[in-house]
Amino acid sequence: MADTVPTIRIPERDIPVYAEADVVVAGGGPAGVGAALAAARNGASVLLIEQRGYLGGMATVSQVPAFCPYTDHIKPVIRGIGLEILNDMKSRMENAFQDEWRERLDWVPIDAEILKRLLDEKMADAGVKVLYHTFVGHVLQQDGAIEAAVIHNKTGTQAVKANIYIDATSDADLTYLAGGRFAIGGDEGELQPGTMCFVLNNLDRNKFLSSSEIHGRDLKHAINKAKSEGRLRVARDWAGISWLNDHTAGFNFGHIFGIDGSNADDLTRGAIEGRALVEHITGWLRETIPGFENAFLTLTGEQIGIRETRRIVGDYIITADDFLKCRSFPDDIARNAYFIDIHMAKPTSGMTMVHLPPGESHGIPYRALLPVGIKNVIVAGRAISTDRATQGSTRVMPNCFAMGEAAGTAAAILAERSSRETRSIDVAALQRRLVRQGAWLGDAINEGYRDL
Ligand SMILES: Cc1cc2nc3c(=O)[nH]c(=O)nc-3n(C[C@H](O)[C@H](O)[C@H](O)COP(=O)(O)OP(=O)(O)OC[C@H]3O[C@@H](n4cnc5c(N)ncnc54)[C@H](O)[C@@H]3O)c2cc1C
User: Which UniProt keywords apply (predicted)?
Assistant: First the structure.
């Protein structure tokens, strides 16, 4: 098929260098945000490039309505920049919201507009140069290192140069463009489905919660009944509802299957089918669910939410066995306690969920952030080097903040001695810096650096 696709040759030409920085971060989701802030706070000059007009990634681009747990059910596992952002977001929300959520760190609803403003301000405070509406579409390489990244935006085609590049695109775009190795999906290329998340207003939360028809918070009964009567076309009898106030909630409800988020045709189909499904679901909610009679559809995601695309092949691949045995590694830079949460690839298949016991977590080694064969790229976020099962767990936003913070801190340490060799880092120095910044890398590591 590939050799039947017609091609054209782009003539060689000179393009302007837009900027040079110690660190270029591609992608402004939780991983990119953590990376840019950490690198800048550690003294590096940082350029953060994001294709949308705001930061936050899935939380703002796709309206994913809640942060997954920061804790292992006993203590916070994700601390540092991730926890700072969670707490700062909460502190800007309505008083009633703060009263309800002040002490809670798990499944906190996201106010996407507050998050966007907060992240703009944090970048300005840290001195990060942010470039919005810009896509990283090409890289130039020499001797196994990226020499420049090519960016596209309204100004035209330009280049950016850095010592270290942080790939926080969640699809491992930089690694892919640099010819790095990656895996995608399961054995037959199957991928978790996408979801078009949405926000409804004009709801009556008290009426909803007190309704006997829906058994308190749980919509399962109503969904199953409607499915069996052919009134609701969703694959799963679950809806994630995150209340921002008594009248407004974000919904993670319904799946669109067979979408590869690294393919533009699939993303287009996901947008169109996703919006149609949201219209259908909203109509059903209005007709069926007490308190939702006057629901007003305020917003759908700018892009369908994508759970799974490329995973890099890194110096270490974190496996399900590592997850299950709660393994620690000498070069841990974060820990993960979230469960394996793989949504079904087909409407007829089931969910895969594997929980760790309370208080347990596994390590995320620095090596899992380093794409094989590339010297000056650190990958953070959804695309790090794991097997498929573990990606179903490490992928969530709190983890991405922590991985980003580690990547950014590592990049700044490397920049201090103008090194482009990500593998040359003194891991102990990186861990010490992370612990000082408030990260938790497991008691063994944290205790070792307690008094330093
Ligand atoms: C439907 C759904 C529900 C989910 N539910 C939850 C949940 O409840 N809680 C939770 O914590 N997690 C949840 N997740 C997982 C989580 O949202 C993502 O895995 C996480 O956001 C990944 O973070 P990231 O920083 O790696 O990438 P993303 O959040 O995807 O951010 C990547 C950013 O990079 C930008 N970008 C990409 N490519 C380029 C490029 N080439 N040039 C420039 N910019 C680029 C994108 O615009 C985006 O802003 C959910 C995901 C989905 C899809």
Answer: 4Fe-4S, Iron, Iron-sulfur, Metal-binding, Oxidoreductase
Check residue 217 and give its pLDDT.
Answer: 57
* Pocket flag, ligand 1, residue 67 (CB < 6 Å): yes
DSSP symbol at 189: -
Is 382 touching ligand 1 by the criterion CB < 6 Å? yes
Residue ranges in 3-150 assigned as alpha helix (H)? 30-41, 58-61, 80-91, 95-101, 112-126
Distance of CA 306 to the CA centre of its chain: 9
The CA dihedral of 134, 140, 143, 146, to the nearest 10 degrees, is -10
How far apart CA 227 and CA 189 sit, in angstroms, is 29
Q: 381 C-alpha vs ligand 1 centroid, how far in Å?
A: 8
Atom 48 in ligand 1: which residue has the minimum CA distance? 57
Residue with CA closest to ligand 1 atom 37: 169
Q: Is 49 in the pocket of ligand 1 (CB under 6 A)?
A: yes
Q: For 109-122, how does the pLDDT look when each residue is reduced to its tens digit (9 = 90+)?
A: 999 999 999 999 99
Q: DSSP states of 379-421 as a string?
A: E-STTSSB-HHHHHHHTSHHHHHHHHHHHHHHHHHHHHTT---
Residue nearest to atom 20 of ligand 1 (CA): 397
Task: Please give the number of the atom of ligand 1 that sits closest to the Cα of 197.
Answer: 1
Would the CB of 69 count as within 6 Å of ligand 1?
Answer: no
Distance between Cα 169 and ligand 1 center (Å)? 8
Q: How far apart are CA 250 and CA 390, in angstroms?
A: 27
Task: Give CA separation, 257 vs 62, 89, 169, 251, 262, in Å.
Answer: 16, 32, 22, 18, 14
Number of residues that this document lists for the chain = 452
- Residue closest by Cα to atom 29 of ligand 1: 57
Reported confidence tier of residue 216, pLDDT bands at 50, 70, 90: low
Q: Which two tokens stand for residue 291?
A: 């308190």
Least confident of 210-214, 332-336, 362-366: 210-214
Q: How far apart (Å, rounded) are the C-alpha atoms in residues 61 and 350?
A: 27
Q: Return the ligand 1 atom nearest residue 55 CA.
A: 49
